[in-house]
Structure to design on (295 residues):
């Protein structure tokens, strides 16, 4: 899987933009298009935004060969086409997006969920491209180096929902796989209650079928080493989703506390947001207002 990005840097000979641009990085199984309602809400508030597709997501997302066949043969065992995608490749896509908008006076890098891994690595690699980090219920590797380390914590496992959504053996598949094409209503409802519980069931199908099957194994399992001199120097905000059953409030609080202890020079500003793990679907206007804050 190529890490090349289709993003082309802006022509610096044109007029210079004003204000903040938000670079939006999706989480597991999502893509740039899930940010569209939030981008519209940001535009109504006078803010620009660029949504990123990480490698193997969006229109480039591969499907297991049996996805649309009767009974989905081999769906839970077929090795993923994304098995070789590295976290460095994903961070490279984020860096390319950041470079393309650097002429804005301020660049805010927004990550959701597992998107916190490539976004954090990108900020560590190129802190000069980022003026603010905004974590939307997303992984912060300052206290523990892998998202998998936090996902196994008691703060997550005690109340998390969604057991049984992952299919097959991630090590053998090379990815964490879900089934956004399942015809099993119980599976679909379990996924909704885990990630989108405040999106009505009758409208959830649109969001459900927009998901892709595979998250590369490397994203939550590759260690990330952050430094106070690079990642730690960037102002950072955490948007805390109060009823999140995919990345629980207790886990969000743990990541915030451990990051602040590891990088005390710039502690998180925490902004509360009601609702589920997916405010871009349930409350994009509120999310846009939280992203803008008091700037």
């Amino acid at each position: 899987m190529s890490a090349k990005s289709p993003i082309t840097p802006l022509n610096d000979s044109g007029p210079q933009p004003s204000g903040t641009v938000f670079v939006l990085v999706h989480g597991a199984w999502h893509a740039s298009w899930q940010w569209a309602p939030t981008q519209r809400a940001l535009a109504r508030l006078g803010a620009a935004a660029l949504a990123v597709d990480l490698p193997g997501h969006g229109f480039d997302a591969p499907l297991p060969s049996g996805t649309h066949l009767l009974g989905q043969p081999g769906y839970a065992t077929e090795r993923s086409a994304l098995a070789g995608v590295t976290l460095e490749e994903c961070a490279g896509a984020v860096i390319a997006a950041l470079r393309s908008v650097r002429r804005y006076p301020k660049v805010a890098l927004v990550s959701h969920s597992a998107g916190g891994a490539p976004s954090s690595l990108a900020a560590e690699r190129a802190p000069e491209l980022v003026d603010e980090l905004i974590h939307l219920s997303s992984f912060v590797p300052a206290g523990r180096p892998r998202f998998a380390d936090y996902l196994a914590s008691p703060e997550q496992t005690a109340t998390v929902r969604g057991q049984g959504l992952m299919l097959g053996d991630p090590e053998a598949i090379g990815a964490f796989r879900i089934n956004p094409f399942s015809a099993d209503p119980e599976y679909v409802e379990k996924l909704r209650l885990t990630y989108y519980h405040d999106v009505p069931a009758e409208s959830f199908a649109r969001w459900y079928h927009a998901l892709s099957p595979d998250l590369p194994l490397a994203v939550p399992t590759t260690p990330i080493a952050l430094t106070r001199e690079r990642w730690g120097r960037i102002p950072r905000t955490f948007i805390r989703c109060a009823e999140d059953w995919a990345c629980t409030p207790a886990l969000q609080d743990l990541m915030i506390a451990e990051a602040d202890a590891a990088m005390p020079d710039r502690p998180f500003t925490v902004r509360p947001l009601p609702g589920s793990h997916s405010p871009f679907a349930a409350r994009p206007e509120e999310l846009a207002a939280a992203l803008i804050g008091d700037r």
About this structure: Confidence is low (pLDDT under 50) at residues 1-10. The longest helix spans residues 87-100. The domain at 20-292 is CATH 3.40.50.1820 (Rossmann fold).
